[in-house]
Amino acid sequence: MSTLELFIIAVGLSMDAFAVAICKGLSVKKLKFRHMLIVGLYFGAFQGLMPLAGYFLGKQFQDYIIAFDHWVAFVLLSIIGINMIREAVKGDDCDCDCDCSFGVKAMLPMAVATSIDALAVGVTFGLMPDVNIGFAVLFIGVITFVLSAVGVKIGNVFGAKFKAKAELAGGIILILMGTKILVEHLELIEKALALFQK
Fold first, then answer.
1. CB 40 within 8 A of CB 149
2. pTM to 2 decimal places
């Protein structure tokens, strides 16, 4: 596998984390470097560790992983999204100068939800003889770290002006992302098209 191919995979895998990082940035009144660092480290670490876990799980568990990964991502992203929408509608003003939304309880579900696809990619890596898993894991983790940290900044720039609306939009985006993952993995669009063609 070439570095370019690995880069494309890394960017593709990190897109969910990037989008969620933008949503995190939306809710921060006064962005600090540590906020970007926390989000980058959580998402980067999980995006790197999940392929490693998948690599060692091997092909024997591939069917089990593929059978439930989309449901886990859908449920976690939906719960987080609904909570963001509730806070935006209620006007619940969490002063994010404290680290209330950057603790383990807030970050861990997001990191897991956005990195589940990476687990399946790791299984695929295990089936490819020419993959340097150490380099691949580090590369994916670093790319995700950078994009996630930048995503927090981007979200904060827009969110500072339109906090309530941005938080509402962020919640909706997370729910839509979870739904997209579910629809893609269940192949609902293909099945619907096949029904109409009969």
1. yes
2. 0.69
